[in-house]
């Protein structure tokens, strides 16, 4: 699946804002896993940018995760929402120019960010709309981190998308509460969640990881981090293009090339 082959979802006829209002539910620290990953993995991209800007698209009914994003990345952040009431209610949390809240959708309100975070946004759309949304959010050269997580941020997954299309898939979990990697299938990004069926690459990938986790059960004596690391090592040994290193694995993460799991 390659960004650019679809059409960006649009709001009501005549609207300049592309997208739909999300449910808006959120919790403090819900997005800490993806935020910390972006800081570690994409921090160099932000440091090299002459005027780094991060857009947080669809922050929801509360701006708390946008405020946290600004604190974790330490660069200018603008939160965008289609719902004008949500934008208005976020203003007391603004700290211009370092933290602002504006109205906007997939067109990014005409901004030219270095990085875009769009979490728990595309989950409500049809899969056919994903490519267009990706293309709209990366049209000016931004790198997009798009994904989903559970209500408390214990399990999450995200796709990193460049203007050329999706590049990587990352899975992340709180290992102390993870029963099995198969649980992560519940929170796959929209582009993959309906393809977690036998015969599809993402299903084969998750099955390999799940089997490796089961085989590593004896290491539970030494803690879930050791078990997860062994499972990731076995998944990599099975031929899956794992991109990150043990330092990230111990955090409950695993990143692979998107092409290997693409429908």
From TrEMBL:
Annotated keywords: Methyltransferase, Transferase
A GO MF label: methyltransferase activity
Xref: InterPro entries: SAM-dependent_MTases_sf (IPR029063)
Region listing for Disordered, in residue ranges: 1-29
Tree of life domain: Bacteria
GO BP, sorted A to Z: methylation
Protein name: Class I SAM-dependent methyltransferase
Source organism (scientific name): Dactylosporangium fulvum
Highest classification ranks of the organism: Bacteria, Bacillati, Actinomycetota, Actinomycetes, Micromonosporales
């Amino acid at each position: 699946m390659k960004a650019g082959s679809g059409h960006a979802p649009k709001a009501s006829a005549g609207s300049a804002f592309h997208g739909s209002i999300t449910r808006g539910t959120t919790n403090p620290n819900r997005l800490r896993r993806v935020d910390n990953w972006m800081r570690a993995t994409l921090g160099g991209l932000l440091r090299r940018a002459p005027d780094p800007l991060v857009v947080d698209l669809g922050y929801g009914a509360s701006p708390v995760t946008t405020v946290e994003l600004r604190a974790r990345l330490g660069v200018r952040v603008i939160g965008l929402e289609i719902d004008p009431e949500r934008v208005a209610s976020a203003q007391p949390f603004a700290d211009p120019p370092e933290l602002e809240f504006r109205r906007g959708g997939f067109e990014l309100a005409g901004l030219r960010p270095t990085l875009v975070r769009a979490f728990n946004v595309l989950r409500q759309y049809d899969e056919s709309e994903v490519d267009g949304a990706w293309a709209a959010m990366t049209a000016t050269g931004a790198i997009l981190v798009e994904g989903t997580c559970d209500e408390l941020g214990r399990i999450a997954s995200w796709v990193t998308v460049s203007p050329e299309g999706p590049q990587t898939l990352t899975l992340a979990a709180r290992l102390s509460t993870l029963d099995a990697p198969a649980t992560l299938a519940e929170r796959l990004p929209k582009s993959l969640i309906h393809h977690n069926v036998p015969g599809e690459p993402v299903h084969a990938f998750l099955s390999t990881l799940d089997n490796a986790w089961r085989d590593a059960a004896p290491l539970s004596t030494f803690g879930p981090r050791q078990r997860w690391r062994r499972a990731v090592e076995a998944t990599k040994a099975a031929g899956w293009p794992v991109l990150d290193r043990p330092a990230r694995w111990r955090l409950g993460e695993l990143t692979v090339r998107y092409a290997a799991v693409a429908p």
